[in-house]
Amino acid sequence: MLRAAGASVAGPGHLRLGEDSQDALSLKGWRGGWIAAVADGLGSRAQSARGARAAVEAAQAVARTWKRSGEWRDLPARQVATDIYRRWLRALPWSDKSMAATTLLLAVCDAHGYARVWQMGDGLVISLVNGRAEVLTPTRSGFGNETRALGTDTSWSAWNTQDVILVRRGDAILLMTDGISDDVPGELVEGFAIAVRRELRKRSRRAGRKWLRRELTHWATPGHTDDKTLAAIFLD
Question: Which of 6, 74, 104, 125 is deepest in the core (most CB within 10 A)?
């Protein structure tokens, strides 16, 4: 059975200022599978929180237009990214969309465990398949302060797409914003993903969300400030 859980919390930086989180999460069932979308609004942009919310809603809406058959597996990844981007643009009232710039991570998984992933910008996508962890997010290039995002990048090259098949119990896909991934060293990514999956499998969806929210709120890295959002789809 496919299960899923996710949580999003405001970081200490925003809490101190009395501001809302600039992350967004949408996790919904879909024909026996799941659609998980995670977004992180760019902190320097005035409407980034709204941009992040619009991004996860656009991703959900586009996936829900797909026909019930397995044809969705063959949809051109570029066309899907374009559809999401256009819907996101239409949802924003401002002529300057860059004021709502945001990253977006999306995983769509059907009832048979066939999953497709799209990513624009920072954050991390990890698959755990057949006992092997794989980072699906490409190694970052360019300067450390450069973030690719909806609202600032229009090129297809800004997107990363992957296909994954969840086959065995415990296979999983995890999406997380950089408020989490930047604090997990590369050599610990696999262990982190396995630990999260193990804890979520012990719990109901509601209890898993509660556990995840507690862990993200009491994040162990000293001096952390960023918002944190994580979604997981797993076979149980």
Answer: 104
Residue the block writes with tokens 């859980």: 5
Q: 27 is in which domain, residue-wise?
A: 2-235
Q: What is the mean pLDDT of residues 5-33?
A: 93
Using alpha carbons, list the distances in angstroms from residue 192 to 126, 176, 185, 188. 10, 12, 10, 6
- CA dist 230 and 37 (Å) reads 9
Residues 43, 80 contacting (CB under 8 angstroms):
no
Find the angle CA(50)-CA(60)-CA(74) to the nearest 5 degrees: 135
Structure tokens at 9: 């919390």
Q: What are phi and psi of 230, to 5 degrees?
A: -140, 140
| pTM metric for this prediction | 0.94
